[in-house]
Amino acid sequence: MLVIIHDLILLQYWEYPRPGELEQHCHRLNHTRRFCRGIIVNLRCTESALREHATKTKRLVPQVLFALLD
Q1: % of residues, the chain, pLDDT over 70
Q2: What residue segments make up the domains of the chain, in order of their start?
Q3: E strand spans, the chain
C-alpha cells in the first residue's frame, strides 16, 4: 500500500491543533509508517518533517517517493 502525505503541519506547528488532535495525528502517522510499503510526498519539507519525526520517535520510515503534483 502507498499513501500520499501532503503536509505535516500538525507536527510542525503543534501549538495550533485542538486538544487531542495532535495525538490522533501521531497515531495515524505511526500506523502509516508501520503498515505502508511507501509514502509519496509532494514537498521536500514534508519528507524532512517525516524523517525528523521518525528519528524522534525511533521508528523506521518506509521508502519515500517525491512527486511534484500539478
Answers
A1: 100
A2: 2-66
A3: 2-5, 38-41, 63-66
